[in-house]
Amino acid sequence: QEQLVESGGGLVQPGGSLRLSCSASGFTFRDYTMRWYRQAPGKERELVAGIDSATGSTNYADSVKGRFTISRDNLKRTTYLQMNSLKPDDTAVYYCCAVHNLVRTHKYWGQGTQVTVSS
């Protein structure tokens, strides 16, 4: 059964850091681009970062450039999101998503992990 499981969320003070992890199972990990999305209360889900499976190339939302870093370990079938210099506006549920490299409509989603940035 295809599954994505996120972990690493929590409560952090402004300026702090968190590292999210997304563990994949049940599908061929290297055939998928991995993305992190987030959804804040009352807002639409937005793409935060993505990483290609073959080249390792990355892309980021303007709001997180220079603060967040996405990475993946194909042997461990895990994707990471290192989040530094966190702001209250980063508060959201963060979702991991696997997008098939050839059939872009073919996706798997995790259940989400809550990140709260507050003093």
Labels describing this entry:
single chain; 119 residues; mainly beta; 4-stranded antiparallel β-sheet; 52% strand
Question: Which helices and strands occur, and which strands form pairs?
Answer:
Layout: E1 3-7, E2 10-12, E3 18-25, E4 32-39, E5 46-51, E6 58-60, E7 68-73, E8 78-83, E9 92-100, E10 107-109, E11 113-117
Order of helices and strands: EEEEEEEEEEE
- Beta-strand residue fraction: over 45%
| Spans where pLDDT lies below 50 across 5 or more residues | none
Mean pLDDT metric: 96
Choose one word for the global shape: globular
Number of helices: 0
What is the C-alpha radius of gyration, as a whole number of Å?
14 Å
Distance between the termini: 40 Å
Biggest sheet architecture? 7 strands, mixed
Instruction: Tell how many strands the DSSP assignment holds.
Output: 11
Helical residues, percent: under 10%
Structural class, by secondary structure, is mainly beta
Quaternary state of the chains: single chain
Summarize the entry for a quick read.
With 119 residues, this protein is an all-beta fold. The chain contains no helices and 11 strands.
